[in-house]
Structures are given as structure tokens and as C-alpha cells.
Amino acid sequence: MLSSLTGIVGNRDQGNYAAGNTFEDAFARHLVKSGQRAATIDLGYVSTVGYSAENQDASTSRSKGVVEQVSEREIHALVEYFADPRNVMTETTCQLVNGTLSESTFRERHIPTPAYMKYPLFSQLKETDCLQGHQETQHNPDCSIRALLNAAQTKEMAAESAFNAIQRHLAYLFNCSEDDIHIAKSVQGNGFDSLIAMEFRTWVVRSLELILP
Fold this sequence. Notes:
This is Ketoreductase (KR) domain-containing protein. By secondary structure, the chain is mainly alpha-helical.
């Protein structure tokens, strides 16, 4: 069965779709436990066929860079592997999650680490050999933002630091690339709902030490 990575990492806008995919994963394990042959492939961003390939707009491009892209040829190879009777399916091997990235990959691509990486389920994807200085910045980003503002020598430099921090945090909240955040649009104009807007407002007050009406 073809499932989706959405069931693993979640999606604020597609809760019912995510639930349906996790059902497929559980159903495959149930069938295997019952002695039948079954498997699910949790696909991420398919680059060459399907909805994402046919709709190259902002909504689908958000997943680019956040999950690893897979081609139609690679999907066929995965299906052939699971269809091969020589490959024994067990409850722990009947589900393949495709497209997840490590924490270091997000840093290399200059993409904010998605919120789901904080969950224990993804702890194996986190890097353990990063520099202490980088760890401190990751664990307490608010301090680094305030430090940049305090170090700014002009209003223009302070404004640029604040803008970059806001753009980075909005991308983090929406699990997308910073390039997908349109600077000329409001928070709502970028597709954020009221809950995310409230979370963003709280972050602005705390991190930038501003008083908002």
C-alpha cells in the first residue's frame, strides 16, 4: 500500500489525511501479524509524477527541501522490493518511511529545523556531534536574536536582524523554507491560521522584547 509521510510528521491542514495514512500503516502490521504479506511505503515529495509534479505552486513547493524528493523510478524499485517473496515481512520491516532528513541536512540547506524534529520519534535523526556553540544557539535562539539586536550599530542593521529572525521563525512554524515566506504579505497572507498567528505574536513579544497591542 502507498501511504504518506504526512502520517508520520503530521500536517496542520490535513489531519484527516494523516490519520488515514497511519491507519494504512497499522493495517499492514496487523495483516503481517495475522500471517499475511503486506507493507506500506510512506512517500514524501514525489518529484516526477502526481499532484506535486503537476502543481508547481507555492503550496506544493513548501515541501521541497524539507523532505527528500523521490522519483517515479525509485518508487517502482521500492514496490519491487516489497513484492519480492524473498524479502520476509515482519511487524518492524513492513513499513518504510521515505523522505525524512537529518538535522545536519536542514542546516546545510539553510532551512529551519521542522518542529517535528523535537519529538522523541525522530531523535535518531538528530546530530550528536555538533559544536557546543551551535547547540547553545539551537536550544536558546531567543538569546542570539537579542544579541544581534544589541550588537547592531545602526537602525538599518537592527531592522535587518529583526526581519531575518522573523522570517526564519515563520518558516519554522510552518515547516517550510524561508524563501516561501513572502515579506510583502501579512502573517495571514502567508497562509497562517489564527493559532499560528497567536504563537508568532507570543514569540515576537518574548524574543524581540516588543509590546504589541
